[in-house]
Amino acid sequence: MAVRVQKAPFDLGAEIAAFSTGLAATGAIVTFTGVVRDEDGRLERMEIEHYPGMTERALAAIEDEARRRWSLTDALVIHRHGTLRPGDHIMMVATAARHRAAAFEAAEFLMDYLKSRAPFWKKEYGADGAAWVAAKDEDENALTRW
Amino acid sequence: MAVRVQKAPFDLGAEIAAFSTGLAATGAIVTFTGVVRDEDGRLERMEIEHYPGMTERALAAIEDEARRRWSLTDALVIHRHGTLRPGDHIMMVATAARHRAAAFEAAEFLMDYLKSRAPFWKKEYGADGAAWVAAKDEDENALTRW
Amino acid sequence: MTLDVLYFAWVRERIGLPRERIETEAATVSALVEELIAREDRYAAAFADLSALRVAVDQDLTDFGASLSGAREVAFFPPMTGG
Amino acid sequence: MTLDVLYFAWVRERIGLPRERIETEAATVSALVEELIAREDRYAAAFADLSALRVAVDQDLTDFGASLSGAREVAFFPPMTGG
Fold first, then answer.
1. Using CA atoms, how far apart are residues C74 and C3, in angstroms rounded to an integer?
2. Residues of chain B contacting residue A38, judged by C-beta atoms under 8 Å apart
3. Which residues does B contribute to its contact with A (CB < 8 Å)?
4. Of the candidates B13, B18, B35, which has its C-beta nearest A23's C-beta?
């Protein structure tokens, strides 16, 4: 189980390869990766700001809650901050469990909570100027299903 | 969009790295990987039999149906047959979409249909002898949610 | 007509071969199954409980009432366990 | 008491600094916000619509009615947009 908050890129293939190795009781691995969309060429870059200290606490708390609700053999959360460009990987979560339902549910739970409860803020820069990304009602509403 | 049925192992990290590259309109990538559990040391190996010809048709049909239901920027299904041992990766699906809900739903849909509608059969060999894996009612029932 | 009949998993094991070519006038899958059961005990054993079996005609899943008109390949197997 | 007060995203931009140390006797987050609003227009602008803001006390999300007793760090920011 691990949580990492970092400015540097991460190697998605290498992370998943390492995560998926040596898990004796695991039958199912689910990963989610967030990617910067190019928005039809309108987005030049994105700056992700976060709250050092609280970010790590919030992600660890969300991961603890996922482990409390599902029987996971492993979990991983990586989230970047700083400058990201279209095609860059913003973050990933990975979950490992005996069966697929738990792995899928835990990954979706981690994503829903991470979206609305981890202190990250995105500002987009592009042809139309710069603007903070607004939180979506649907993201807040997604929490009600858990 | 691709479907592959193969005896050879696949490199999970390399597959996901390749899948996740150059997807301009993609914001979300979900992967599922099936792993052979060691069943507390009782499983020595598994033999996966399939129906050449029908397998590829069935997987392609399931992938087509996923693309019809969700707006996917890409999808991939890989399924192995032959001899597999604990820790080996049996199969994977990957889905790419603008937003996370579609990527998660399409991956779960692919898994649910693949479990009960693609012509694969598993036989387990181990300390307790050899036995065909029985289909689970819960896997058949999982189809009713789609 | 001439049909390729395929067997998978424990159906293949009980019947003792993976495929065979059969000359038949059976109009439906059920009629073909009746013909096979009448042949030998190993077929009767394999087809004892049809609820435990699935059938595909020309590589499409179907049911035991399906017509064999124009069919070239029929496969019998237990419920699938992929994934 | 002495509090570290942190601002993120557009709250930081409106107030014009990421953090400051504030001497206050405010008993709750709301009372602290009232003090800040009374200071200067840029604070009034940042705190004009509290429904658009979130607050954390000592790095735990809470609400504007929360007590500041024993608190060392208060942070104001818009709804998070991680993931």
1. 7
2. 24-25
3. 11-18, 20-38, 40, 86-87, 89, 98, 100, 103-104, 107-108, 111
4. B35
CA angle D79, D80, D81 (to 5 degrees): 120
Residues C3/C21, Cβ–Cβ less than 8 Å: yes
| Any D CB within 8 A of A117 CB | yes
Q: Tell me, what's the pLDDT at B13? A: 96
Chain C residue with minimal CA distance to B90? C83
Query: Coil, strand, or helix at residue C64?
Result: coil
Is A57–D59 a contact, with Cβ atoms under 8 angstroms apart? yes
State which residues form the domain around A115.
2-145
In terms of Cα–Cα distance, which of C68, C59, C72 is closest to B51?
C59
ipTM: 0.94
Q: pLDDT grade, residue A22 (50/70/90)? A: confident
What are A's interface residues with B at a Cβ cutoff of 8 A?
11-18, 20-38, 40, 86-87, 89, 98, 100, 103-104, 107-108, 111
Kindly list the residues from chain B whose CB atom is less than 8 angstroms away from the CB atom of residue C9. Answer: 49, 121, 123, 132
Total domain count, chain A: 1
Structural domains in chain D (count): 1
Q: Compute the average pLDDT of residues A122-143.
A: 93
Q: How many CB atoms lie within 10 A of CB B54?
A: 21
pLDDT class of A55 with cuts at 50, 70, 90: very high
- State the residue range of the domain holding C47: 2-77
Chain D contact present for A114, CB below 8 A: yes
pLDDT tens digits for range D3-43: 999 999 999 999 999 999 999 999 999 999 999 999 999 99
Q: Is residue D65 part of a domain?
A: yes
Q: Which of A68, A146, A20, A26 is nearest to B31 (CA)?
A: A20
At A111, the amino acid letter reads M
Predicted local confidence at residue A63, as pLDDT: 96
Separate counts of helices (H) and strands (E) for chain B: 4, 8
Q: Alpha-carbon distance B69 to B105, whole Å?
A: 10
CATH number, position A110: 3.90.1170.40
Determine the Cα–Cα distance for residues B29 and B72; give it in Å rounded to an integer.
10
Residues in chain B: 146
Q: What predicted TM-score, i.e. pTM, was given to this entire model?
A: 0.95
pLDDT (tens digit, 9 = 90+) per residue, B28-37? Answer: 999 999 999 9
A16 and A94 Cβ atoms separated by less than 8 Å: yes
Looking at CA atoms only, how far is residue B24 from chain C in angstroms? 29
- Check which CATH number belongs to the domain holding D41 and give it: 3.10.20.30
